[in-house]
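Service request form, structural biology core

Requester: graduate student, group of Dr. S.
Request type: structure prediction, single chain
Budget code: on file
Notes: please return the result as C-alpha cells.

Sequence provided:
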Amino acid sequence: MIRTVFSLTAMLVAMPVSADTKDYTFISGSDIYEALSQESMVVQGYVLGVADALKHSPNSSECFEIPMRPDADSVIYSTYLEYWQKRDIPDSGTEAITQVMLNNFPCSTIVENN
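Core staff response, request fulfilled:
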C-alpha cells in the first residue's frame, strides 16, 4: 500500500506540464479511477479536495453537495468507481469528479455560500 502511494506520488510529480496547456488538470480521470481502485490515500485526498472546492455552485446545473453522513468519503470513492465502471472517463480528473458528483449528489436547493 505504501509503495503504491509513493509510486503514484512520484508519477504525479514527474508529469510534464506545459504553460500553454489550456485544460490541464493534476491527474486524469482514468488515473483517478485506477488509484481509487487501489485505495490510494493521495488520490482519495485529491478527490475530496476537488469535491469540496467545487460544491454548492450558484449555477443550478453545476451544483452538487457532499453527502451528509459519517462515511461520506467512502461513499464518494465507491460512487466514482461505480459511475465510471462502464463509461468513457474524461481526460480531465476535475471533470470526471464533477460529473460523478452532479449525477449522484445534486444540490437539493441552491446554496449561496460555500
